[in-house]
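#struct-pred
JK: can someone run the complex with NAP? inputs below
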Amino acid sequence: MTQPSNPPVLTDRASSWLIVGAGALGQLFAAHLASQRAVTLLGRRDAPSTLGYLTAEGEQRRIALPRLRLRDWRPSPPPALVILATKAHDGEAALAELEPRLDPTTPLLLLQNGFRLQPRLTTCWPGPVLCASTTEAAYRPTSPSTSGEPAVDVVHAARGHTWIGDLAGEHAELAERIAETMNEAGLAASACADIRRRLWHKLAINAVINPLTARYRIPNGELAHPARQREVTALVGEISRLMAAEGIEPPEAGWMALVQRAIGNSAANQSSMLQDVLAGRPTERDAILGPLLEAAERHALDVPALRALYSSTPG
Ligand SMILES: NC(=O)c1ccc[n+]([C@@H]2O[C@H](COP(=O)([O-])OP(=O)(O)OC[C@H]3O[C@@H](n4cnc5c(N)ncnc54)[C@H](OP(=O)(O)O)[C@@H]3O)[C@@H](O)[C@H]2O)c1
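RT: done, structure tokens with the ligand placed:
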């Protein structure tokens, strides 16, 4: 691992921020943060040095920024922050490939859904590990442009909010600084004193919507159909008991209202797990359902609906 004599300062406008994973969220964050910091976007393939970005307001932009293959990147200058924007199951491998070129005290910001990577990296990464829970929505268009217009690499499907915090509660100041920069870059964000609770609330929503929509190959809104509501109710019942056993404070309106609101608000959307299944890609099943099944083991709780859902969901 490299050890620079003068560690880069995150708040320095000239500091370099590295985004690992040039997918939907990685490109969205890069498109915004490049206005505030020297952002480099790392992917698995060669890419042109501009990013085609369609904003949430429908404006097409081209953003110039270095886009490299992860294997070609050199830490010159060393980054002040590494934003990990891969899927949960790819995060550790991507970081392992990068690790020999990084100062071990470099702060990480994890963008993943689920609750698998976050506790693991908090335990084993020597530097600060910040976790984000975001309601921003972005996707990569599947078909290339046919209009002669430059291709769009990423679409900002819906504006949201990002909460940032660390599981150990030791890096509140760092979370504040990152949130501040995100706000300056046009992505609404705030530091969060209880990011574990935020992540588990999102997990509750994702554990119901993602696997059920992938199993039945339906848009999110069809979960409001009476035939699907029985399954939703059984799953939310099990999840509420698990959350109570884990000591996760419930949302004000309760777990069922949280999940139903998410179904209603995203009625026309195709969940990310359904998109992965249709594209033949690995899903985030283990990062989303795995922590719930492990909690059931820890507390000796019977969760037949969640177990059945895990078995019927491709990994
Ligand atoms: N998209 C959203 O709206 C959204 C919203 C909230 C949370 N999230 C969460 O954010 C995370 C990322 O989601 P996403 O939608 O951005 O996924 P995505 O579009 O699949 O992007 C992930 C990217 O990581 C790249 N990658 C994987 N391993 C790599 C490696 N070793 N080196 C370099 N790049 C690597 C992938 O490369 P390839 O292209 O080669 O596969 C892909 O481009 C997920 O946990 C998701 O649940 C997403």
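RT: quick notes.
Residues 16-193 form a domain with the Rossmann fold fold (CATH 3.40.50.720).
The chain has a mean pLDDT of 95.
JK: thanks, will look after standup
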